[in-house]
Amino acid sequence: MATNDPTPRVTLEAITALAKRRGFIFGSSEIYGGIGGFFDYGPLGAILKRNVKAAWWREMVEVRGDVVAFDSSIVMHPSTWIASGHVAQFVDKLVDCTNCKHRFRLDHLPSLETCPDCGMRGTLTAPRNFNLMMQTSVGPLEDSAAMTYLRPETAQGIFVNFKNIYQSARKRPPFGVAQIGKSFRNEITPGNLTFRQREFEQAELEFFVPDDGNDLAWYERWVDARKRWYSDYGVSAERLRFYELKPEERPHYAKAGIDVEYLFPWGWGELESIAHRGTYDLDAHMALSGKDLTYFDEATKAKYTPILIESSAGMDRTTLTMLIDAYDEETITDASSGKETRRTVLRFHPKIAPVQVGVFPLARNKPELVARARRLEGELRSHLRSQYDEGNVGQLYRRQDEIGTPFCIMVDYQTLDDDTVTVRDRDTMRQERLSVDALRSYFAERT
Ligand code: GAP
Fold first, then answer.
1. Chain-centroid distance, C-alpha 255
2. CA dihedral over 78, 81, 87, 92, signed as positive or negative
3. Closest ligand 1 atom, CA of 196?
4. Residue pair 277/159 in contact by the 8 Å Cβ criterion
5. Is the pLDDT assigned to residue 125 strictly greater than 80?
6. What mean pLDDT is reported for the chain?
7. In whole angstroms, what is the distance from residue 30 CA to residue 300 CA?
8. What is the C-alpha separation between 76 and 384, in angstroms, rounded?
9. Which atom of ligand 1 is nearest to the CA of 275?
10. Which of 74, 311, 414, 416 has the most CB atoms around it within 10 Å of its CB?
């Protein structure tokens, strides 16, 4: 973290505790002691992640006419990973300590002299390659013919299907193919909650363009589209940066590349990579499979390999970003008593908030209020993500603030007389009285 970077919103410990307490993220198989690099999304986390994916899908596919949907299998023919370069190159260099048996990534070691864990000198082994792909066997035989991998990225499923896709969808470059799905990498040092996992979800757009000199303009357009997306969903601009890779930092075939980075509690970390990949991927699959993956343009009779622009975003990292970026703590002063209290609030964008409106009766022991509040919540449910709750009013608001609910509705005695309710805004904490009839349009404008 550089000295002029804004201070982190929250510590990793605080966000991990909140994520568990409120049902966003749990460690996988905790009752057996957990398993490093795997996580489960709780009742609210599952909705938050779905909303993040839906927001990506909406912008990248649904509102455009030039991107088609795809959903490929996780296990693919092993040759896929030879052609893609993953078998030979998707490796980290590892070093073991022969004394304490700890294992390190070479690029994380300050020197090869002394083990950073046990402090012994001369106990570190020479570096060796460790492939990050997870192996699996297919069918009842466990010989090498049946061995393959869980995909380390979703993109290859699109490349090997390029011809199937453009022919069946009747698409002509420039057009894109989008997919969201699980990927697996046997990371040596998983950590920072869901930031570095061994099983995670990617949202990838592979955009194929003709070789007509407009490829870099398309790349720029996609960088702009992705900048807009983060801004539309409220990710703070001062904690987001688009780091342009220098020529020596990108693969030789790539004309340009950008890492989208967020300022996490532990420093800047990559959320997404946007890359101009040339014709590398389709060429590699054509060379190994012997199959033609060029595009034949019926109109011009030209046959060519399209150039690829890729945007590859981690959905778990984006979800974690939304959680961290939404986090806020503030001191509030009660208007009548002057008493000061602290509140924790998640300022989620209303489109991604797991609960958009909480509905409560003023008193849980008044059956007429409870019945009216339950009925209202049931009516709102088909338009909004709503939640009924009851109890101490202060605690109800505190809980909804902490899970990031943008609006809360209170059903009180006046509701029974004139069918009005109070609506409280999470961020300003201001309350206004509205007629139940007006709620639908009120929320339609704000969510
Ligand atoms: N097809 C290109 C590709 O896979 P990448 O930069 O290796 O590019 C894209 O991965 C994104 O996937 C990353 O920016 C990150 O958000 C996510 N990602 C990669 N490894 C991850 C891991 N171990 N845990 C969580 N997310 C990961």
1. 26
2. negative
3. 24
4. no
5. yes
6. 96
7. 60
8. 39
9. 2
10. 311
pLDDT at position 76 over 70: yes
Q: Percent of the chain, pLDDT > 70?
A: 99
User: How high is the pLDDT of residue 1?
Assistant: 66
Per-residue pLDDT, averaged over 60-78, amounts to 97
Token code pair at residue 355: 């609960």
What CA–CA distances, in Å, run from 165 to 284, 293, 299, 417? 18, 11, 19, 60
**Rounded to a whole number, what is the distance in angstroms from the first to the last CA of the chain?**
35
Measure the CA–CA gap between 327 and 325, rounded to whole angstroms: 5
CA neighbours within 13 Å on the CB side: how many for 124?
Answer: 23
Burial letters 12-40, b for 16+ CB under 10 A, else e: beebbebbeebbbbebeeeeeeeeebebe
Other C-beta atoms closer than 10 Å to the C-beta of 6 total 10
CA of 203 to the centre of ligand 1 (A): 9
Q: Any residues with Cβ below 6 Å from ligand 1, and which?
A: 153, 155, 185, 187, 196-197, 200, 202, 204, 270-273, 312-314, 316-317
Query: What global pTM score does this model have?
Result: 0.95
Alpha carbon nearest to ligand 1 atom 7, residue: 153
Structure tokens at 39: 């996580």
**Tokens at residue 431, please?**
């309350």
What are the structure tokens assigned to 172, written together? 């002509």
Q: Is residue 381 predicted with pLDDT exceeding 90? A: yes
Q: Which amino acid is at 365?
A: N
* Pocket probe mutation, ligand 1, options 241, 273, 274, 311, max atoms within 8 Å of Cβ: 273
Atom 17, ligand 1: residue with shortest CA distance: 314
- Backbone CA torsion sign across 379, 380, 386, 390: negative
